[in-house]
Amino acid sequence: AAAAANVPKMPPFDHRPLPYEGPAAAEILRKRAEFLSPSLFHFYKNPLNIVEGKMQYLYDENGRRYLDAFAGIATVCCGHCHPEVIEAITDQTKRLQHSTVVYLNHVITDFAEALASKMPGNLKVVFFTNSGTEANELAMMIARLYTGCHDVISLRNSYHGNAAGTMGATAQSNWKFNIIQSGVHHAQNPDPYRGIFGSDGEKYARDVEEIIDFGTSGHVAGFISEAIQGVGGIVELAPGYLPAVYKSIRKAGGLCIADEVQSGFARPGSHFWGFEAHGVVPDIVTMAKGIGNGIPLGAVVTTREIANVLTRRSYFNTFGGNPVCTAAGLAVLRVLEREKLQENAFVVGNYLKNRLKHLQEKHSIIGDVRGRGLMLGVELVTDRELKTPAKTEILHVMEQMKEMGVLVGKGGYYGNVFRITPPLCFTKEDSDFFVDVMDTALAKL
Ligand code: PLP
Description:
Radius of gyration: 22 Å
Largest sheet: 7 strands, mixed
Cofactor: pyridoxal 5'-phosphate
Organism: Ananas comosus
Enzyme class: transferase
Catalytic activity: glyoxylate + L-alanine = glycine + pyruvate
Helix content: 25-40%
Bound molecules: pyridoxal-5'-phosphate
EC number: 2.6.1.44
């Protein structure tokens, strides 16, 4: 009882999970080992069998509730099984699940119009895909077709997908196989915490100029980057970097691609898209994850002039922009607006970041607290001067947090960064509970 008294108390939540009659975790784990790809991984010693979700909470096979601070990798933006999103999906499923591009359907055009209304400048033409990888593959292909050049520049520590082209743009050995991934140059990462020029965005931007001068013909297809690196451990690009790089890329004839797969869709709080915080307007924007609240959907948005390169051939995608997925997308936009989830991400994100900063003063293992809105990172290091990654310690802390009812992600090149990317309905009470649990778990190290 004395130990239990020290365990932070989860905020109350009015939901009774459905009875679960499926197989237990051990049986699923056995089947996973036998029938699923060996490349799959999990964070916990005994992976959880998650059988239900409701808003910012997940439930395991025993009906135990967990606060979800990862949201299926920044994907469930409105909350798990949000009633309005479910209703939109089921209504559309009853009417029409799939047709094909040769027929018209208003759900698809309505969602394209709604997405375009969220975009600055002339970014008005939408191509739908099924994933973030496909969106980035298409974006890089468009840049290459439009410019007639092959060279693409991306950032070290970035993640852009798992197909050949996007794996080439990705710059972390953890996520690459040794296959041919040609035509991508990786620039110094403008990472204020670990980067070689600290927070000096202009210095990093000069590295891109040097790549153009010394690594290409002087002309490039484009530049692709996240505004806040997600898989890379919640790294916000140094201020001043993107405007300077966009200028150099455009001077070299290239297009600027913003990968908003994680950092977009209201998550940054201060803005709807991550790039907006840097005062730039990209030529192509890619998105996925949050756009469908977990339904497979991605998109590339660009200008009419750039999109016209695809008229040289028929180009389509069987499932991309399927009416069920786009009905979900329309519902997501309605919910974000009505429930003011971007504003919530701003207010709650600031509150949570502030509390985490205070936690940093208490625990020397916290080397850095960073991020924006509800895309926050906490980097653990065993030595603040040397920034030695606390790779095993983070696993212990995660395990303890799970025991106390909190699920959180981790990432970064060294796997030592907590990735806090909850559903955008996360509350201040959830933040207090989260920080108290992290505090308790760190104290046990
Ligand atoms: N781009 C970014 C920034 C991502 O974080 C991811 C996935 O984590 C992708 C692209 C690839 O998206 P998907 O896994 O939907 O193919």
